[in-house]
Every structure is written in C-alpha cells, then in structure tokens.
Design a protein that fits this description.
The complex is a heterodimer of chains A (579) and B (283). Chain A has 579 residues and is α/β, with parallel strands linked by helices. In chain A, the strands form 4 sheets. Chain A has a 7-stranded mixed β-sheet, sandwiched between helices. Chain B starts with 18 loop residues before the first helix and ends with a helix.
Amino acid sequence: MRIENSLNWKVGGAAGEGIMTTGLIFSKVVARHGWQVFDYTEYPSLITGGHNTYQVYAQTNFASSQAKILDVLVAMDKNTLGLHLDELSDQSIILYDSQDDKIKIDEYAGLKGKKVDLPMVSLAQQAGGTRLMANNVALGASIYLLGLDLGVLNGVISDIFGRKGEEVVKENQAAAKAGYDFVMNSVGSPLMTVAKNEGKNYLTMTGNEAVSLGAIAGGLQLYAAYPMTPSSSILHTLAAKASEADIVVKHAEDEIGVINMAIGASFAGVRAACGSSGGGFAYMTEALGLAGVAEVPLVVFESMRPGPALGMPTWTAQGDLQFILTASQDEFPRFVLTPGDATESFHMTRLAFELAEKYQTLVIVVLDKHLSESRYTMTLDVTEFKNERHGFAQAPALDSVGFYPRYEVTESGVHERSIPGQVGGNYIANSYEHDKYGFATEEGWVRVEQMDKRNKKFEMMKREILPPYIEDNGGEITLVGFGSTKGALQAGRELLDKEGIKVNILNVSWMWPFPIQAVTDFLNKGVPFAIVEGNSTGQFANVLRQETGLTTEYHFRKYDGRPFYPHEIFEFVKNTLQK
Amino acid sequence: MNQLPTKYPYLPTWCPGCGNFGIMNAIKMAILKSGIPREKFVVVYDIGCAGNMADFLDLYGFHGLHGRALPPAAGIKLANHDLKVIVVIGDGGCYGEGATHFINLMRGNHDITVLVHDNHRYSLTTGQMSPTTDQGTKTKSTPEGALEVPMKPLALAVSNHATFIAREFSGNIPQLSMRIGQAIAHEGFSLIDTLQICSVYNPTQDLKWYKEHTVGLEMIGHDPSDKAAAWARAMEEDKLPVGLFYQEKRPAYHQLVSELQSATLLNHDKSVVKMDELLNEYR
C-alpha cells in the first residue's frame, strides 16, 4: 500500500530535546524541494521527559495526512526504538546512536528494517559542535538516505539559526555534513531520490498558524485568550506577530475575562476574537449569549480535544460539535465553520470576521488538535487582502426620546450600530432583553419583536453558505466527514484508488447554517454513504439527520484521541463494501 | 397596547431611601463637571440593583453579565483609549462572582474607574450575604449567621497595586462626586468602594450606623502617597475611614502596549492588509 513518490520520516525523542525543531527543519527541506508535506506530532502533556515525535509525510504533488509505515525512523533516545514497532517494515531504516544511548540493538526483538548505528553525539562533537547538535547529524543522515539536497538543508539551517550568529550556523551545518557523509559511507546508495519540483513555492503551516494569519488578513485588531492546549499556539502566533501585524493581543485572567474583554472591544468598534479548547470554551458559554443578544460581532476559535472535562490534552477529537452548535442560554443565530485543512482555515477565518460584522453576531471557527497542530502545505494566490467594514452608522442621530434606535427592526434584521465616542449614538448594549434603544424590558411583545429581529438574520446568513468539499469520483460509496477528517479521507481515497476502488468524498467545512441543499443533492444520488467522525455517538450523523433527514447504516467513529489514518479508511471501505 | 415607554431613560426603580440614588447623582455631577463631552463616556454596568442604573442614565452603556463588568470595560479601553470608562458594580459582582477580574485588572492598571456599590448584601436576589457581609450576620442564605469573615477590598487593592483607592459614603453626594471626578481624571485603575444603604435587606447599617461607624481620613490625618499607612487604614474595622486611601502615578495598561502608542486601536486602518512579510517564516 505504498504510494509512489512519497516519503515518510519520523523523529522521536524525549520532550525538551528539540524534537519539534528537528522535525520542522526536515519538513522545510522537503517542502523546498517542491514536494507537499503533512507533518504530524505526538507528545504528552509534560514539559520535559515523555516521548515526543514529529512525523513528515511527503509526496510529489499532494499530501494531506500522516501515514503509518515509515521509511526512516530517527531514534534520538532509547525509548523511540520500542514504541514504534508496528510502524516499521523490512524496508524501513532506523537511525540510532548505540554509543550515546547505550543501546544493544539485538535486544530489540521485533524491530523490523535496517538498523543504522549513527554516532550522532560524537559526530556532532567531532564536527566542532555541542551534543545538542546531534539532531543535525540525524538530519544530514536522513537527507542522504531519502535522496534530498544537502544544500537545501544548509539553507534551512541558516534561516532558522541565522539570528544566533554565523558561528552557530556553521557548526550546525558541519554536524549535518558529518551525518550525511557517515551514512553515505556506511549504508551506500540512498533509498530513493527526491526530484525537485521546480517552481512550487509552497507555504507550510499548522491549522493554528493558518487561523492566526487568516485573522490578521481579516482585519483582526484585538485577540484575547487564556492558554489551553491545543488552542494555545493561536495565542502564541498572534502574540509573536502582534508588533508586525499591528494588533493587540491580551493573555487575560481566565476564559470568562477573555471573551467578555473581546466583546467589550468589539462593542467599541474593533474587530475582536478570542479562543480556547473545550474546557475554556465551556467557561465562555454564558458570554456567547451576550454576544448574541447584544448583537456584538465576535469570532471565537474552539480547538477540540478529547473530554469530558480535562480529557486528553494533547490528543485529538471531534466531540464538542453538538455543544458548539447550541452553546448558550436560549437561542440566537450563529455561524459555525469547520475548516478541513490549513488553506480552508486561513480563508474561512478571514471570512469569519466579515460575517461577524455583517450580521452582528457570533462566528465560531472549530478546529481540533489534529488540524490545529499538524502542518499542511498550501499556497496563497494573493497576499494582499481588502477588508470592507459593515454596519457602522456614519452619522447616528438620537430620535425623539433622546437615544439612538440601534436595535430597531429592519428588513434584514441588522441595524446599523453606533460606537462610543460618536455624537448622537447613545444606546445600551444589554445582556437583558431590550427594546430598540437597548433598554431592558420584560414586555412580551418587545421580547418577541427583538427575538424575531435576531432570528431574521439567520435567513440572510443562509445565503452566505459555502458548499462542502465534494469529490465526485463516480464512487461505489461516499465518505462523509467534517473538519480535519478531510485529509484522511483524501489520502484514503488515494490508497483505494490503487486497488481500483472508487469513492466519493463530502467533507463539511461550513457547519452552520447547515448546507442542507448541497449536502442533500449530493447524498441523494443513490450511492450509499458512510460517516467518518471523531466521536463516540455520531454527533455529525445526528446533525445530518436533523437537518436533512438523511441516515446511513455505515459509520466509522474514532475516539481514542488519535486521528484517522489513511489505511484505516482503506480497511473500513473494503470491509463496508464486502457487507 | 404595544407601546414603548414615553420617557427615556427610565425613572429609577430603586426602593425609596436606596443609596443608589445618591451614587447616580454623584456620577452625573462628576461627568458634568469634568467638561468631557458626554459621548466620550461609556458606563459598563454589572448585574444587580446598581447595574440597573443602565436604564436610568443617558450615556453610552454596556450592561454585561453578573460579575463580568470589568473585562468588557478593559476591552473598551483597549479598543479606544480616548474614551472614559466607568464601571458600576455591586459588592457581590466585584468582590464575589468577578473577583478574579478585579484582582487581575487592578494590577494591570487598566485605566477604568470602578464604582463598587457596597451595601454588604445581594439585594436584587433578596438579601443573601455578600463578600463584605460581617461574620455572624443572618441572611436568607445564612440563617444561622455568615461563617466567613468579610473581605477587605481596600486592603486587597493596596497590596495588589491599584493606583487610586478610595472609600466614600453614598449619603455624602458632594464628596462622592468630587472623588468620582478625581477617579475619572486618574490615569489607571481607580477603585471607589462606596458604602451604601440598603434599607430593605440591611436595615441595621442605616444612615445613623454609618454616621457612627465612619470617619473622614482628612479628619484623622492621612497621606495618600503612603502605601503602608493606606494598608493600615484599610484594615481598620471599628470606624471605617472614608476618603482617598492611596494614589500613585504609574503608566496605565494601554500606555504600555507598544501597538497603542501611535493611535487608538480603533484608528488602526485594516482596510488593506499586506501579508507578504508575515508569510516569510512559513516558506
């Protein structure tokens, strides 16, 4: 089941040993050959110790998922040798350092593949570097084995370590060269040759980075957050870019403070967002209703992880879906977007800010650990983005009672808003039900009028729906998913295709208002469909039935914290078709 | 008949004799006296009797969630630091439900004026104990008497780096108004803990009680730049000192945010965002 012109590389080691940086460097080297990469990381919720891995799956023209069987496994510590036995084949190469890690390789029964004893630490030291540069020896060796260009590695090293000075760059490059030469002499010819795909200038970024950049492109002005894995790197990315992007980023006291602060800022006229994972999002729930009733534009990122409660912090899940769709007291219209990869994350987040402002309501952008922290390959056709502002009264006027009727009923349900500082714009943004000026009311008819006004917006919001990702391959079965499942479905389709089995794909990246028409049209074609989702009770299946009446007997549900693998999709489809 | 009220803002719905009347009048006088245009003020109201003032003032208002008035106030100030932001909140919301916001925004010296209507009860929910209720006080939720000792919000504020800390009494409107004026002018986190009568749910602490149990700081001699003295005064129990406990000049939060040096965040133009440079790291 190996895809031609692909490579699958993994480095493992203890947390704190620079595993993530090593992986990122390797990934950049491959991407700069014009190949597409998909990087997948696993790590426990620990600061030091614990087992970290960084995996790079790459293909000449398309990569959307990690794959299981490795071409090269780099063991930066002893542990790594024992923890990945089922990811190796007889063709795999394992790089390890018997000297430094005191490894007797014969003791590892069941370790398949060619074991290459690479004295990483001593080669790094001989090359004039420190023991930390052993990672570069492993990189140099990997580059040789997979037929990549050492010059490209040197370029990436220089980009990443450049600010530490020329000396550091040279030492790292020398260590890489030592590793490269060592395996050239000890192993002989490389496993493969990666031909450069000239002219492909890919960007690679994680879902969280794509969301962050999409937000900046969408005119984000204030981001407030409280750290929670796996959403934290949105906060880190935006904080790191704050100065360059000219935005304000606030790590506030808790998630309740975070969302209320963002709502306040938005009320005052800036584009604001906040983000968290399931637990922190649960804290935010009361304020979601505040954004809804006061009609304050707000973008919220929710990156899911397994729960309930603390669950498994560094693993993936799609179990918050139904909670997200209704989280709040009572009802108000909202958008829920579930991008499937980094490209969709970028564009949909940018759009989220426009939608929030246009409809003066809440937009939730949903990710999960797999999307948030995996690195995707993408391109951007344009890098300059125009942002129109929506719904601001240019010259608000007080009416006869001395207030601005900011919540007056309109045909669309949206009324222009004033912002504090504007003469003639006085009104109250109110968490209580209110009349057209924002004054609290308990009158039944006013309540109904304002509920109807807000609900009216939903009809307009439906016109914004973007269609799902659809592949009509004339398949025997259609695989249906949402969010990050997209990549595994695509990679699974590729494996099935090699066996002559055709499948269609429908992945929902715009969850709410639900794309009833597009989904119904495609699933009603008489082809059986299967729902692939990352929770135990079939929450997406529930939503699908609720919105379209469509049901299926074929389900693939995974809730062990691990993402879907292409070979699992392959086996699931084969088993399903045999029934 | 489906008709809206004819008079806006509404007439106050507070009980006769409620301290909120005095506080509201003091706010109105302070705003008038400040000479700052009315549209530059935003009042963020918490939930409770005090928060209901949202319907009685004609200013830009934000009536938030219970205990959560401080974060939107800080958000508004970050979005547009040309605005003057006042928080109207009760002792329950500020010192109880939302205490984490109170503690953290004060040490950030966010430039907001926090007026705590401190009547030592949750009055809108019919008189349960609050964080400032005296130990042993019988209320609906503590029929055998409150077991906790009361919070000392001013001492907390002194030790936790608020830069303007005062206590006033709702019955002394001229002095309260003067203090609110000072707090509005102060660049940084200002707290005025306003002792307030609730004649319905806390009849014991009435006008007479407050007259007997308060003393003006200027009467006993106090230097508001002396932090240690401010803390000692804030810990006093028999006679509650009233006046300015502490004030210091320290940059406000927004004055330290590098991105806000050139203009208010509201005036940062995002109509065209160029991403080329930002994307370099991802190549």
